[in-house]
Fold:
Amino acid sequence: MQIEFGSDSLESAAHDAAGALFFHEGQVDVSTLEGPARGAVQRALETARFKGAQGEVLEILAPAGIKAARIVLVGVGPRGEDEGLALESFAGYAVKALLTSGVRKLELFVGDASPENAARAAFGAQLAAYRFDRYRTTGKPEKQPSIQVVKVNTRDPGRARAAHTAWASLADAIAFSRDLISEPPNILYPAEFARRVQALERLGLVVEVLGEKQLTELGMNALLSVGQGSRRESQLLVVRWDGGPEGQAPLAFVGKGVCFDSGGLTLKAGKNMDSMKWDMAGAAAVAGVMHALAGRRARVNAVGILGLVENMPDGQAQRPADVITSMSGQTIEIISTDAEGRVVLSDALWYCQNRFEPRVMVDLATLTGASQVALGVEYAALFSNTAAIAASLVEAGKAEDELLWQLPLSRRLENQLDSTVADLKNLGEPAGGAIVAALFVQRFVNGVPWAHLDITPTVWPSPSTFPTVPDGARGFGVRLLNRWVADNYED
Ligand code: BES
Ligand code: ZN
Ligand code: ZN
Structure:
């Protein structure tokens, strides 16, 4: 799909195009339109109950007196503070409504929006048009996307086009993350994940791949224990972006990358086990953030650590009751082989702080179903040992519509990690499951300023009610952390 900028009016939209207009709730006003378009829109509004509510879409087919094949009116809800997000959702709803409609060209009219916000509309269109079609061979023609071109019409197309460059690069990073999450687990196992991240060296990232031999030498027995029942080799990726002053401590992002979580010997039930292909979404978010930072040549040093394993049951698999010695030296009693994410993170976080002495560490993981039970689909769970970091993450999330809700690192639950034979065990009570998992992870951050995002709720909205997210992988975390870095760690 091609993005263009211009300054056409609805009157001059092409024959095969659909022209889209947006309205804020309670402000449905056609006075800025001219000629026959005004009459056509006015009539349609009179006969429909269009109020401009968020997500409301009204289509006018072949309106009399104008060339365009359709006019689409899109509601974006009440006028709020963030007009950029409103324009993204405008474009998103329009694309969702028309993607497979047969229309080839979508012309968006953004009125007197700033060039930055006009660019946001183009970005919203790109996100909404994302598809993961790699494995479809018999798609019906009427299900194929028909939109080839999205043109944003604005007062200053030149400045909008310039502003769009950065957003287009972010859209690429999000698509990269969504692709990883969408891939089936027979294709995307740890070594293949590593190859795809290595291909990002073209952006200027430096990628190191550590295999089982090196991980054994480093003493990462916790991470290795999770993968030991799999025929696929476990991998740890170190991805570096050095865009800041030499010697400045990096920001660190650590991702859970369980390419498939069967539960191991503590086998999961069959129902919905397929969703465990996206148990690597934390690692995919980290890969996406590094892509985004390199894509815009961020003036910051950052490192991404991806713990990639497959959690499978076989004769070599770890058992409930096994005790392993993690890289930190702390021993872990495995009670459930299905509480494996925290075990992977324990070594990945310890390695990260030990080698890089980062300014701050943020981990992302699909760690618990409990976080999803608590928060639904819109908010990911946030935990942090530093109030200012939590606050800045929440702010960045609001600006990018990737929302976070903080939960407590409740000390009263620490005793649930007590083991009768080891330093700690990997399973507590079901009550407060997301908190217990976060407390486990905290044992391996060694006092470094840290935040933990349990992104289980937000990875895979299906069906999706988000305007810029198709059903399936959202790519959650990429926009959020890219913004967080830009707003807090770059001058
Ligand atoms: N990968 C799962 C968490 C998960 C659940 C992700 C649902 C996405 C959707 C994780 O490894 C897991 O199995 N967690 C257990 C923890 C329990 C054994 C303490 C869970 O949430 O049930
Ligand atoms: Zn699990
Ligand atoms: Zn898991």
Remarks:
- DSSP finds 13 helices and 17 strands in the chain.
- Residues 2-169 form a domain with the Leucine Aminopeptidase, subunit E; domain 1 fold (CATH 3.40.220.10).
- The chain has two domains: 2-169, 188-488.
- The mean pLDDT is 96.
